[in-house]
């Protein structure tokens, strides 16, 4: 012991530990219990200064477990602990950029980055012209603290290709904790369909947000099963995770998530089997033309469907196209119609980012309202990643979202086809398929104002750009981690 105390570093360690114990004891006597968080705060502060890459991965890890605190004394809602950590990263990035001014020009001039810049610039313009500027600037600030850490810094993070795999495994590690909690909670209600809509709280707002993320990661881990560059143990873990995700997705009763996953399977077939674009385009033209030719017959069939949502899988699938009696489907149509009327009144600048839920009520029609309609603006937004921006940011807002989606998918497919390394090809393919699930899901819901969806969404965008710029032309990817590790 005396020899140990002769070491100056150990003396400082014991001194600081003793001071912390003394300070925390005094705080506990005063019934202040947050003192125990002081070492965590110190470690996080050091990560901001010296290990920003590890901090980003830490945020990925805690995001599925983050809890949204709304209606606080400050009158705002924030997801803890993930969003405060992202705000710190945003501030640090701005300060470093102002004083250092160095950032890879290849990233700034990439087609996907240009699309992201356009989206952010238009959000700024429409926030200035917004009907509710305070709401819109809060929306813009939240978008920045999602995009800056996980797109602009994410691309730099993924220059180390090992972080691509780490990101996915870290997110799903705590997502599985949420799955276990949700499944156990759901089992206490006999896995009933109605209770399945909210048993994932407080981690996810409802089953649609939960299902969207489950569907997002299914293609990733199913793809990892076929990563023959890794060991059998690695692929076995990927198979186990895939089964857990699929089971949880089934129990989520999220019809939109099921549809989005089915669409990603279709895209996978088109990409892997190299179906030519002209055949895909011809198929879409035939599909659209058939709809218009037989529109009356199709609407008649849809209106005849009276199947409401159900715990029975087949009946629940049938309820997807029930537009005559299913309250959830009819309410979406009501929200979309309201959003389109808002767009028609302000087609260029819209009403302002984030304002839909506060403004749409007068744009409803009595004949379109449902038993779950409300004028209070407290039951969500336009339920679409495309129609929502159309009403809030005008046609350029919709264009900016479509531009980002097309640029990401085209870049990802290009990397898949041209990458020399098999693992990079696999990473690019599963990243595209994951994003496809979200873009399809985006027709029916929108979650990019939440950390749960934004962290993987912008992170996967960053992965695609990083692979395109840094890894596409390398024959050998450095996977110096032990085989079987993520």
From TrEMBL:
Q: Which InterPro entries match?
A: O-antigen_ligase-rel_domated (IPR007016), WaaL-like (IPR051533)
User: What Pfam families does the record tag this protein with?
Assistant: Wzy_C (PF04932)
Where do transmembrane segments lie in this chain?
12-29, 36-62, 74-95, 107-128, 140-158, 170-189, 209-227, 234-251, 257-273, 280-302, 394-413, 425-443, 455-471
Instruction: Provide the species name.
Output: Lentimicrobium saccharophilum
An example Gene Ontology molecular-function term = ligase activity
Q: Name one GO cellular component term.
A: membrane
Q: Where in the cell is it found?
A: Membrane
- The identity of this protein, by name, is O-antigen ligase
What's the main place this protein lives? membrane
Give start and end of each O-antigen ligase-related domain. 241-401
